[in-house]
Amino acid sequence: MAYQTLIVEIEDNVALIRLNRPEALNALNSVLLGELADALKSADGNDKVRCVVITGSEKAFAAGADIKEMSSKTYVEMFGTNFFGTEPDSIGRTRKPIIAAVAGYALGGGCELAMMCDFIICADNAKFGQPEINLGIIAGIGGTQRLTRFVGKSKAMDMHLTGRFMDAAEAERSGLVSRVVPLAQLMPEAMAAAQKIAAKSQISVMAAKECVDRAYETTLNEGVLFERRLFHSMFATEDQKEGMAAFLEKREPQFRDK
Ligand code: HXC
Fold first, then answer.
1. Is 132 noted as a catalytic residue in this protein?
2. Which BP terms from GO are recorded (predicted)?
3. Which residue has its alpha carbon closest to ligand 1 atom 4?
4. Residues contacting 21, CB < 8 A, separation 6+
5. Which fold has domain 201-249?
6. pLDDT for 13-59, tens place per residue?
7. What is the CATH number of domain 6-198?
């Protein structure tokens, strides 16, 4: 499907979704978020897709929600339309793994979008920030909650209250991103990670993703029990038999998502 604000390519079982509003540093407007929700839904339902990568340009992953679109809105319009209250949920509903490949600015809603993905790989020129405070507003797509879970209260408060940016090294040190690579290596690294995931059994990949996400939603004991039950359920799959047989026979497994 052709989108106005996204370029979507499917290659070797990976859907690469590129945010494409270069004139506004990929600022997230209603069209873009609607299209992203649609692209993720179709990736989730497409048997050829086993992992998703979301990226932007070398200059900006996304410089935030679109300030031009929001500037003249009233409270009644924002509340009445539940502004950006529904589209981002589609990211959370995606069962296949999503990697954010971030270069340049990931600010405001852009940082929030990256944090909604399953993990973030960034280029050495990445800059993360929640600068909404400079506009007389606050984060609105989960930034106060997710950044705090990623980097802890002190840094999250610092970022939200001062609006300062965090560079790639600090982002890695703080646990916001899983890897930092030179800019030229960003897409090869992200695509290689996606392909590595795509080669696993989808059943165990989706189960692992559900379990890690559960860590944010429940107590340790309940989370561990949830994990153990899903772990036990893996033994109902053919892929468990294949994975363990392949190890014992010293060969590569041929997973069939069964
Ligand atoms: C709309 C934006 C934009 C944004 C950049 N642009 N960010 N348009 N919304 N968030 C546009 C600029 O207006 C400009 O268009 C073009 O992109 C290039 O930007 P410049 O500012 O000229 O580039 P540069 O000098 O390199 O500065 C880059 C920047 C700066 C530091 C990223 O653009 C910036 O501070 N942007 C805003 C960041 C921000 O505050 N984000 C939070 C938004 S609020 P023209 O037409 O002038 O050339 C938010 C709330 C989320 O995200 C919750 C919602 C529910």
1. yes
2. fatty acid beta-oxidation
3. 66
4. 5, 27, 29, 32
5. Lyase 2-enoyl-coa Hydratase; Chain  A, domain 2 (1.10.12)
6. 999 999 999 999 999 999 999 999 999 999 999 999 999 999 999 99
7. 3.90.226.10
Nearest CA to ligand 1 atom 41: 64
DSSP string, 161-201: HH--EEEHHHHHHTTS-SEEE-GGGHHHHHHHHHHHHHTS-
Ligand 1 centroid – CA 175 distance (Å): 25
**What tokens appear for 83 in the block?**
């502004």
64 CA closest ligand 1 atom index? 52
**Which residues have C-beta atoms less than 6 Å from ligand 1?**
24-25, 27, 63-68, 83-84, 105, 107-109, 131-132, 135, 139-141
Q: Note if 140 is an active site residue.
A: no
**Residue nearest (by alpha carbon) to ligand 1 atom 43:** 64
Model pTM? 0.97
Ligand 1 center to 116 CA (angstroms): 20
Q: What is the mean pLDDT of residues 64-79?
A: 96
Report the complex ipTM: 0.98
Residue from 35, 87, 112, 189 carrying the catalytic annotation? 112
Domain ranges of the chain: 6-198, 201-249
Ligand 1, residue 112: give the atom nearest the CA.
51
Tens of pLDDT, residue by residue over 223-240, are 999 999 999 999 999 999
DSSP per position, 87-112: TTHHHHH--S-EEEEE-SEEETHHHH
The span from the CA of 39 to the CA of 139, in Å, is: 24
Reduced to 3 states, what is the DSSP secondary structure of residue 143?
A: helix
Tokens 């200059």, located at residue: 59
- Of 73, 71, 69, residue with least CA distance to 27: 69
